[in-house]
Structures are given as C-alpha cells and as structure tokens.
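HUMAN:
Just now I want nothing more than another pair of eyes on a protein record. I would be glad if you read both lines and explained how they fit together. I have put the entry right below:
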Amino acid sequence: MKKGKVDKGFELFYDNLSYRRKLIRTILMIIIGTLVGILLIYVFDSILVSVFYWVSFIISGIIQFRDNYKACKNEKNQ
C-alpha cells in the first residue's frame, strides 16, 4: 500500500517527502556538508582532499537545490 508524500512530521526515506520537504532537507544537508568540509580541512590538512570534496559538494549541492526548488515551485502552483 503506497501512501502520499509526507509534508509534515518525520520521514526517514527521502523519496517519501514532498518537494518542499526535500528542499528543506537539502538546505540542512548543505549546512552540515559545509561543517564537514571545514572539519576535513583541519583533520586531513591536504589540499587534494579538500579540493576534491569542495568541488563535488558544490556541484552536487547546486544541482540538487536547483531541481528541488523548481519542483517545489511547480508543485505549489498546481
């Protein structure tokens, strides 16, 4: 039995969230990912690790945020 998208309360699975909640979770992950990136700079003290992390983090974060934002706006307008 498949239920609708969750817009309130806790939901463990990302696919069960509405696009608004996916956007909120993406923003939270960007904040947490930034903190992890800063921690990596101090722990590994390696430019290669830092550059690889930040490039992949920024590219994936922008793509995910853009897609969720567009879908959230489309869902809101319907």
User: Anything to note?
Assistant: DSSP finds two helices and no strands in the chain. Residues 51 and 60 are 14 Å apart (CA to CA).
